[in-house]
Amino acid sequence: KAGVTQTPRYLIKTRGQQVTLSCSPISGHRSVSWYQQTPGQGLQFLFEYFSETQRNKGNFPGRFSGRQFSNSRSEMNVSTLELGDSALYLCASSLDGGTSGNTIYFGEGSWLTVV
Amino acid sequence: GESVGLHLPTLSVQEGDNSIINCAYSNSASDYFIWYKQESGKGPQFIIDIRSNMDKRQGQRVTVLLNKTVKHLSLQIAATQPGDSAVYFCAENILGAAGNKLTFGGGTRVLVKP
Known about the structure:
Order of helices and strands of chain B: EEEEEEEEEE
Shape of chain B: globular
Structural class of chain B: mainly beta
Number of helices of chain B: 0
Largest sheet of chain B: 6 strands, mixed
Largest interface: A-B, 33 and 33 residues
Strand content of chain A: over 45%
Order of helices and strands of chain A: EEEEEEEEEEE
Oligomer: heterodimer
Mean pLDDT of chain A: 94
C-alpha cells in the first residue's frame, strides 16, 4: 500500500511568486492535513480537510490556502511568497476525521526555498 | 540531508542502552498522544500512540507513559540501536468532531554512540 505522496519534493521560488503543493493520501484515507516545519517554529498546523471540507485552520495568514478534491487528494497554495515561507511542508493523512484516533501518517514533505 | 531543528535538546545514548525521551504537553483537554520519529530529510514516522484513558502502552522496543496529572509524556526505547538516531516529536490531539489537528512539541534529537 502506497504511503502519503507529496509533489514536488524540492522547489525554489522567488519572492512574490506563488506555489502549489500536491498531496495524495493513503488509499481510503479521507482526512488530509498540512503542516509547516521550520527550524525556528518547529511543526505547525496549517489546515485540515475531510470530505472536501476544511474543518480546521491554524494561525497562518490568508496567503496560505488549500483544497481537497473528491478523490481525497489535496493541494495547498501559498501566494505572494515571502522569504520566511521557506520551510518543509508536510502532508498527513488519516482514515477518519479525528474521532477514533486512527493513525495519522506523514509524507516525506515538499522542501520550499524562497529566494 | 536537510536539517530542520538545528538547536534541539540532544540525548546521547550508548548503543544497547535504554533511552528515555520526555515531553510536556500543553492542553489538559488533549486525549490522544502520538510519538513520531523524524530522520534527516524525511517526514515524521509514526512510532506509537496512547489515549488518555491509558497510562502505559507498549510496542516493539518502545513504551509510552502518560501522566495526565502533570501533563507529561515519555517515550522509552529499549536497547537503543544506531538506526534509532533521529529527532523525536511528541504530538497531542483532541479527538472529536473538530478533526485532526496535531500540536507538536519542540523535538528531541537522539544520538546513538557505537
